[in-house]
UniProtKB/TrEMBL annotation:
GO terms for molecular function: transmembrane transporter activity. Belongs to the binding-protein-dependent transport system permease family. LivHM subfamily. The lineage of its organism: Bacteria, Pseudomonadati, Pseudomonadota, Alphaproteobacteria, Rhodospirillales. InterPro entries: ABC_transp_permease, BCAA_transport_permease. It comes from Limibacillus halophilus. Keywords: Amino-acid transport, Cell membrane, Membrane, Transmembrane, Transmembrane helix, Transport. GO terms for biological process: amino acid transport. It is a multi-pass membrane protein. This is Branched-subunit amino acid ABC-type transport system permease component. It holds the Pfam family BPD_transp_2. It is found in: Cell membrane. Its main location: membrane. CDD domains: TM_PBP1_LivH_like. The chain crosses the membrane at residues 15-35, 42-62, 101-122, 134-152, 189-215, 236-257, 269-297, 309-328. One of its GO terms (cellular component) is plasma membrane.
């Protein structure tokens, strides 16, 4: 049971990232009808918002020690971040919590990127075939990827979690198992809780706000909403911005789990589209359900006992599940009738 619990926790970890990215993808497709292959790049840009904030807060001043020397007898260089020089202990906290603080930067940055992307490019492809949408957004993703590569380099850039959240938690003891049987990284649990909050906030926004109701109505019948005198285009521009923010925040908080590099977006893009298809094109709840379901299945498939029986199953399990689901339910688990069927 402890092994099963551990794999479920690992599945929630992966599933949280899949669900957040797939949620944004589905939000864009459901409202705008655009198959956005640049969405993985938005996840990557969010991760590099965290990198940029960390680098900014870690800028340091070099002083020479008067008492310590190197092995060669020269004065030892002491590097102190400017944040600590200017703000003292508060500066140390800012440096330590650079990843969570990056959220404050990522929200406006990703919102602006999303709005500019939609107004500058995506809006011209609303009524174009999906194949053209895929080509242009995939090309945009490659451009963004190369910009990040040129600016930050090709190597992964590790991002530390806050010191107080780097430890392990005895999850097994907390739920009644033997102490030490299920020990899990605390930050991964933080990421799952963060994803839960973001997903809940998106659904609450769509369900309980006036703008959310307009968006849901537009997803169901865009033309009728337009005939009512509502400027649906402006609302949908905001939707694209919100989807970009969701993807960006997912990337920010994932950086301590997986060091970001320039092809991070591509690594998650294909898997996230599989999640969307399995959940059902245009279904927000289906995207979230499929994200966690496939994350848990992938986690169990990565167990050594499973891989010894079926080598490489952890690499293909998601695609096998997608084939089975689509054969049984061509619209996906919770797909809506008429979506992608014309």
């Amino acid at each position: 049971m402890d092994a099963i619990l551990l794999q479920i926790l690992n599945g929630f970890d992966k599933g949280s990232a899949y669900a957040l990215i797939a949620l944004g993808l589905t939000l864009i497709f459901g409202t705008l009808g655009v198959v956005n292959f640049a969405h993985g790049a938005l996840f990557m840009l969010g991760a590099f918002c965290a990198v940029a904030v960390n680098k900014l807060l870690s800028l340091d001043i070099v002083t020479l020690s008067e008492t310590q020397t190197t092995a060669w007898g020269t004065p030892l260089e002491i590097r102190t971040p400017y944040a600590e020089v200017w703000f003292g202990e508060i500066g140390s906290v800012l440096v330590d919590y650079s990843v969570p603080l990056s959220i404050l930067v990522a929200i406006p940055v990703m919102l602006i990127i999303g709005v500019v992307m939609e107004r500058g490019l995506i809006k011209h492809f609303y009524k174009r075939p999906h194949a053209e949408q895929i080509l242009v957004t995939f090309g945009l993703a490659i451009v963004l990827q190369e910009i990040i590569k040129a600016w930050f380099g090709a190597n992964p850039i590790p991002q530390p979690a806050p010191g107080s959240l780097r430890g392990m938690i005895d999850f097994g003891a907390a739920v009644g198992f033997e102490a030490g049987s299920v020990v899990y990284p605390l930050w991964r649990l933080v990421y799952f809780l963060f994803a839960f909050v973001i997903i809940g906030a998106v659904f609450a926004f769509l369900q309980f706000t006036t703008l959310g109701m307009v968006i849901r109505a537009g997803m169901a019948d865009r033309e009728t909403v337009g005939l009512l005198g509502i400027d649906i285009d402006k609302r949908f521009t905001l939707v694209f911005g919100i989807a970009a923010v969701v993807a960006g925040l997912a990337g920010v908080m994932y950086t301590p789990i997986l060091s970001p590099d320039y092809h991070l977006g591509m690594d998650f893009l294909v898997l996230s589209f599989v999640v969307v298809v399995v959940g059902g094109m245009g279904s927000l709840s289906g995207a979230v359900l499929a994200g966690f379901l496939l994350g848990i299945l992938q986690s169990f498939a990565s167990m050594n006992e499973i891989k010894q029986v079926i080598p490489g199953i952890d690499q293909i399990i998601i695609y096998l599940v997608a084939v089975v689901v689509l054969l049984a339910r061509p619209r996906g688990l919770l797909g809506r009738k008429g979506v992608m069927e014309s």
